[in-house]
Amino acid sequence: MNLAKFGAPNFDLRELVPPKLYDERGNSALWHLNPTLLTVLQFTRDFLGKEYKQEVSVIINDWLWGGRFSESGFRYPGSETGSRLSFHRGGLCSAADLKCRIKSTKEWIPADDVRDLILNNEKKFLKAGLTTLEAKEFAPTWTHIDCRLTGLDHILIVRPRYKPKAGES
Questions:
Q1: DSSP string, 110-153
Q2: Taking the model in full, what pTM does it have?
Q3: What is the CATH number assigned to the segment(s) 2-158?
Q4: Burial tier of 81 (Cβ tally within 10 Å: 0-12, 13-18, 19+)
């Protein structure tokens, strides 16, 4: 399902959800995505294309095309990928892990470059709805973005090291 009518014409629903959720819910898997995330994804893709003066692919999940990524968008609460309290999880996914490349050459854009472009244009990305990036030491080859509510006037940089309290799992 193309997400054009939801503001993200360059994305397919299946790029944002794992195959199990799509198999269970079909196009209703859309219900599990924060609409602001779709706006931020399209804005990011368009912004990178203007910066690089050519079309850029923003890859989240690629299982649809035989790739290995299936939990870079929505994750089930019981997933072992990432932090237990990640904004990828739960009923409404507000996060995505991006891998970006130049479409014509398939050359990967380093995640550091993507993060730098976002931070150097922070106000534009905040206006689009992006509120949070993951620190590069935790996301060395991808760019974690999310649109959690922070109330901040700058992009929050997170370092996910949640440790459960005694007796909590």
A1: PHHHHHHHHHHTHHHHHHHT--EEE-TTT-SSSEEEE------S
A2: 0.92
A3: 3.30.1380
A4: middle
